[in-house]
Specification:
Distance between the termini: 57 Å
Order of helices and strands: HHHHHH
Number of strands: 0
Structural class: mainly alpha
Length: about 140
């Protein structure tokens, strides 16, 4: 394979020297590298078709619905909060099953907030020691 690569490199350099590659379409523009570099090569076409059709994996839809419901929980009265909380628990269970691992969104939220604060340079002493986070107990509201 090395001989083939050397031959290809040699031919490319010869074409560059002759100016044969200077006026190609898209010359001088950045390459459009999709976000599919981590997708196995045999699945890229199918993934691109699904993406262009507006399809999102089920986990994305579940996460959106969970985030929306969590935001609404604070605004609901106690009568409406019970069914909403049950729905949230059901959605989180479905997300856990889809992932194959338990989901703890409150820990993910705290981690994200601490990361943002750290990059902003404003992590407090209590947050550095893990104080004030409730020890991971209680509902993720």
């Amino acid at each position: 394979m090395l001989a083939f690569e050397l031959l290809a490199e040699q031919r490319i350099n010869e074409a560059l020297a002759k100016g044969e590659l200077s006026d190609l379409p898209g010359s001088g523009q950045p390459l459009e590298l999709g976000d599919d570099l981590l997708v196995p090569e045999d699945q890229r076409l199918a993934q691109r078709i699904l993406k262009n059709a507006g399809y999102a994996p089920p986990e994305v839809g579940l996460r959106r619905e969970i985030a929306q419901l969590r935001a609404e929980l604070e605004l609901l009265d106690e009568v409406e909060r019970g069914p909403a909380w049950q729905r949230l628990c059901l959605l989180m269970s479905q997300l856990s099953l889809a992932r194959g691992a338990a989901v703890n969104l409150s820990l993910e939220d705290r981690y994200w907030e601490r990361l943002k604060a750290r990059f902003a340079g404003s992590v407090g002493d209590g947050e550095k020691r893990g104080e004030g986070d409730g020890g991971g107990r209680g509902p993720a509201a």
